[in-house]
Amino acid sequence: MYALSRRRFLALSAFAASHAYAAPRSAEPRSLLSPFKLDRLVLGPSNEAGAYDSKSVDCPFVFRNGNLWHMTFVAFDGIGYQTGLASSEDLLRWKKVGCILRRDPNNPVLKYNVAMNWILRENDLTSQGRIQRVQGSYVGAYHAYPSQGYESGAAVIGLAHSKDGLAWTPGDIILRSEDGAAWERGGLYKPCLLREGDTFYLFYNAKDHTTGPWHEQTGVATSKDLKTWTRYEGNPILRNGPAGSYDAHFASDPCVLKNGREWAFFYFGLDDKGVARDLVASGPDLFHATKQEEPVVNVGAPGSVDGIYAHKPSVVMHNGDLYHFYCAVGGNRKNSVRGISVARSRPFSDAERALAMA
């Protein structure tokens, strides 16, 4: 069998504030819909030879720190993943700050890849997602693939630490695929790190095989100290749907937030036709969720900025509006462009669209 990258499989399948922002809490859950698209990239690849982000940008994580919005993103240069940071005043115009977590040729785990996908933040859907300190440091979660190339080999999950949100130091590996169940033996993907009460929750998606067609599903592990982790015995908590469903092949890239008394599990699904779109499920706790029938962000028309995929959610709220950032893949499948776009719960004005282009 030949090693099949995740991107190829998809194609073949057709962030200094130390205090917490007091987010308003509602007893009733808020709508999770964001049907109005900006219909353009807010962040794209640099296309500069040798740059860390030359080929694509992917996997947004949007948060608030100090007086600015920030976005971590995963950048690909043809060798492997590294982690970038961008900043914004208005969630529409984004400026790249630079690469904040680089691969390390002297580290056998991080030799080719280090993709930080999440920083511990406020849990509430109604918040701006301000990042939170643990014992004086910010804590991020990353995954790393062992080989050169696009998502090559079985990835592991580790934690990273920062004093200022700009300079990050990768720490110990906390989850490995070989220690898990059959559904995750092929490798681990995007981590989503939460703290609720005295417990940390790490959500992640994983694949069952490293070669050939595979399935991805989402599970969770818990810890009291960020060091010792226990996988939930009921994993995966977001399973593949039946043939013909939106998530028949993938139920991936979790973004888990508190929604009133409920929890919202944003994720993306891959269907039988190779179409990836953002979905959501809701549940009374962090272990059980019922899927919503319709997508929260769907793919666009052929040739549009997200005509191929609209997936990998990151959600924040500003001025009462829900902003849903996602990886948009457009163009044609042989020469696609992979970048970051956004949808919102309120329509974008012509002035806002023009601002995003400035």
Describe the structure.
The chain has two helices and 21 strands. The chain is mainly beta and 358 residues long. It has one domain (6-32, 61-303): Glycosyl hydrolase domain, family 43 (Tachylectin-2, Chain A, 5 Propeller), CATH 2.115.10.20. Strands 1, 15, 16, 17, 18, 19, 20 and 21 form an eight-stranded mixed sheet that branches. Strands 6, 7, 8, 9 and 10 form a five-stranded antiparallel sheet that branches. The protein is globular and about 50 Å long. 48% of the residues are buried. Residues 8-27 have low confidence and may be disordered. The record marks 253 as: Important for catalytic activity, responsible for pKa modulation of the active site Glu and correct orientation of both the proton donor and substrate.
Overall number of strands = 21
Indicate the mean pLDDT.
Answer: 91
Low-confidence stretches: 8-27
Cα distance spanning the termini: 48 Å
CATH architecture: 5 Propeller
Please give the radius of gyration in angstroms.
Answer: 18 Å
Q: Give the total of domains.
A: 1
Organism: Terriglobus roseus
Protein name: Glycosyl hydrolases family 43
Pfam family, one: Glyco_hydro_43
Keywords: Glycosidase, Hydrolase, Signal
